[in-house]
Amino acid sequence: MELKQLADSKSLPDFINSIEQKNTSSVVLGATYYIREDGSAANKAAATSCAAAATSMSVATHNAETFAVGDTIVLCESPAFTSTINPPSSGSASGYITYEGDHDGNGVRATVTNGIYRLLVRIDYLKIQNVHFTTSKKAVVFSSGGSNHWIRNCLFDSLSQQGIFGNGPDADNYSQDWLIEYNMFQNIGVSTDSASADINLSGFARRWTMRHNTHAGDDSTHGVDGVTFSNNNVAGGDGAGHIIEYMNCSNYYENCVDFKGAKPSSGGEGGSIVRDSTFSGNSGTEGLAHIQYNSRDVTFERVKFLNTTSNAIALVGKGAGNDTVGHVTVKGCALISVAIMTPPLWITILLVPMAAISARIRQARLASACWIFTNGKG
Known about the structure:
Elements: H1 11-22, E1 32-35, H2 59-64, E2 72-75, E3 97-100, E4 110-112, E5 116-118, E6 126-129, E7 131-134, E8 138-142, E9 146-147, E10 150-152, E11 155-157, E12 162-168, E13 175-176, E14 179-181, E15 184-186, E16 197-203, E17 205-206, E18 209-211, E19 214-217, E20 228-230, E21 233-236, E22 251-253, E23 256-258, E24 273-275, E25 278-280, E26 289-292, E27 295-301, E28 304-308, E29 313-318, E30 325-331, E31 334-338, E32 347-352, E33 361-362, E34 365-366, E35 371-372
C-alpha cells in the first residue's frame, strides 16, 4: 500500500491491521533460554531456568551465542541487568526472536539499566516485551537499520537521552516497519536537549507505527517517514518536548495531548494528516500543532484545540525553493475556550527568512466546517 493512500480514512485501519497481522504471524516456535546478570551457565544449552545463576547464562555468554527463528530469551527478574545486552541473531517473517521480561506472568518486569543495543550489525524481527528500562542514556538502540521489530508493554523510565532509537544508515538498510505499542515512557531526556526524545527515528527510517502508548515528562516522540501515531496519551513537561518531528507522509490521529508548556509537534515534508485528536496546554506562539519546513499537503481534520493561550496551528517555511508552506487544509476542527485575538491566532504562518513570502505560502485555508468557541460559547 502506498503511503499516500493513507490519506483516505478507510485505508488507515487496513494499514494498522496489516501491521498487526504481520506482527502476530509467527509460525515457528523455538527453544527457550534464560539469562541473568550473574549467570554462569557455560552456554545456551545449559541455560534452562532462572532458578539459579548456574542454570542461566550471563550477558556475555548470550552476546556470543547464536539463536534461531522462534527462540525466546527470558530476562530473569533478579538481579537487575547492568551489562549491555547485544542481540546476536535475527528472527524472520516465520517467527520473532523474543526477549521476555516477565516469563512467569507475575507482572514484575526484569530491569535493564544499560540497554539493549545492536550498533554495527543489522538485526531484524526482534520482539521485546515486559522489560523495565531505566537509568541508561538510551534503552533500545538499533543503529544499522533493521525491520519488523515489535516493542510492547515495556516501561521506559528515567533515561538521560532516548527510550527507543532506530537509525537507517542508507537506502539499503532502512529502519522500517516497527510496531511500538502499550508502553509507558516517563521522565526521559532533558527538555532543552534536541537529542532527547521518547522515540527517535533517524536517517533512512519509515513505516513505524506507535499506538496505545503513554508518554509523560520531558519529551515525547520523534518520527520520520510514514509514521502512524495513534491512540496515545501524552503529557508534556516544561521545555522543548516534541510529539512528532519530521513527519513525512505521516498520520497522527486519535491522540490526547496536553503540553503543559512543552513544544508541540513539529515536522516537515508533506502528505501528513492530523485527525481526531485533542490538543491542550500552552506552547507560546509556536502553536499547539507546529508543522515546520516544507509543510505541504497537510490536513487537519476533526481536531480540537482547547484551554490554551497559544496559537492553535503554526506553519513554518524555511529558506527558498521547496521549503514551502502550501496546500494546507483545516476542516471540521474546533477552538474551545481559546483566546483568538493576537496572540494567539487560529493559524500562524512563520517564515524564515521573510523574503519572497508569496512563493512559499499557497492554498492555506479554513474549510467551512470549522467552529470557534470562546469560554464555551460558539
